[in-house]
Design goal:
Number of helices: 8
CATH superfamily: Creatininase
CATH class: Alpha Beta
Order of helices and strands: EHEHEHEHHHHH
CATH architecture: 3-Layer(aba) Sandwich
Largest sheet: 4 strands, parallel
Shape: globular
């Protein structure tokens, strides 16, 4: 049987060789207004919309996530757990013709997997591109995106209670701030300016991230 690769809204029939995977975190505190699985919901939205717009294949989500040992705001797994799950998805993707993969990551700790992606490329004879979209944890950008996606609910004033919600901006995560200058710098900004809701910013960032994924998909073609 001949499959109709050119049918439907596809930028090019070769796009069927490209898969997109969402990477985030399922179990992290995100203050008062965002759910614990905010990261993976944002990553999944960006990934799926990018596939809808191009015709690339959305291969799903990675359930495990990893994190720096000193960042304690949720439940995470090892780097090897994440790689093992990716290995499974890529292996199954190969069976449907996937040769190139874009990983959309919206959880900072997952950056730790980057050094092991080359091993997956060699094992499966595929090309992998990891796109990281780091957002200040439960900060203005993430809250604004969450509102646009419809996962925001609650009081922003309550959310800015850093004593009760130390994970917001990682303001109250003392060990993380001591060991990571980038985290400390972001926390200082959140302490100074607080977390705000900016719907236009949320829409702008989503469009920007989706366009970056689309650009990567097209470059693979």
């Amino acid at each position: 049987m001949n499959l109709r690769y050119s049918s439907g809204n596809v930028v090019n029939e070769k796009v069927h060789k490209i898969g997109v995977i969402a990477l985030g975190s399922f179990l992290e505190n995100h203050g008062a207004v965002l759910p614990i699985d905010t990261d993976i919901k944002i990553a999944s939205y960006i990934s799926l919309i990018s596939c809808i717009k191009t015709g690339a294949k959305f291969l799903g989500v990675v359930i495990p996530s990893t994190e720096y040992s000193y960042v304690k705001h949720g439940i995470h797994n090892s780097v090897d757990d994440v790689i093992k799950y990716l290995d499974f998805i890529i292996n199954e993707g190969k069976k449907i013709g996937i040769e190139k993969i874009v990983i959309v990551n919206c959880h900072g700790g997952n950056i730790l997997i980057k050094d092991k992606l080359e091993d997956l490329e060699k094992k499966h004879n595929v090309k992998i591109k990891l796109l990281n979209f780091p957002l200040t944890h439960a900060g203005t950008e993430e809250v604004s995106i969450g509102y646009v996606l419809g996962i925001y609910k609650g009081s922003l004033e309550e959310h800015n209670n850093f004593g009760k919600y130390p994970e917001v901006g990682m303001v109250g995560l003392k060990e993380a701030r001591e060991k990571n200058k980038d985290i400390d710098n972001e926390a200082k900004k959140v302490e100074k300016f607080g977390v705000k809701l900016d719907i236009n910013l949320g829409k702008k960032l989503l469009d920007e991230y989706i366009n970056k994924v689309i650009k990567e998909i097209i470059s693979f073609i």
